Fold:
Amino acid sequence: GTRLAPKEKLDIPVLFMPDTMKMYEALVVIHVIRENGENWPCEDSAELNKDLKSVTVAENGGIQGILWIYPVHGIPEAPQQKLFPAVVRCRARQRVERRVEVLLTGVVPGATAMPAARHSAIVNTNKPANIQEEVQVTDGFSTTVEFLYELQYQSNEAKSQLGAFVGMHLIQRERDTESGIVTLIFNIVFAPNKPMRNEATLVVQCTTGGVWKFPMLFIATEPEVDDVINIEAVGLNKESIVSFKLTSQTR
Structure:
């Protein structure tokens, strides 16, 4: 019953307020008819595809109404909390491995699942990881629930500085059947080539819907001294020369 003048704009608000961490789907459908109730004339009405969902054709061959259909996907995201970032620290030109554990709530909707991710947390165990360990699924965890994860950076510059030196792999996951909390354990490999300090965000998305974000901080400190060059004087006002080789890591 909304009347629109020619070239007039219409705002259609869409409200999304999820109660569980799963994806919701809906359609926003706008149906337009002429105010006087008459049909739009159509010369080739007989050739119109009857399966076309964007128009409704009247019996006399005219176009009775026009449809705009917009699919909407509602993906709930866990509220941002003041979590302490998981810190991965390494000296430049060295390599370190760390296990990072994250807790997800409300992953699987059901009686035992929490309605919202109010207690998502991140734990940095700071223990060397065994990269040979396989991903394990404990009893009670649905094998159909999969997770997508990635590291997001604050800028393209940070991505170029950090992206090539960080590797991440999901090595273990388990779910507590009573609380519905899912624990994911990642193996983080950090091998910087120069001192840096960059922040990143670990983004975890469940295939059934729901997004969790956890802050991370990567710190590369000054590298070890390569060598000490001793130059011994041969006398006053005389030059002493020591030669040494430098090898470039790139072209």
Summary: The domain at 76-109+145-224 is CATH 2.60.40.2310 (Immunoglobulin-like). Residues 109-119, 127-144 have pLDDT under 50 and may be disordered.
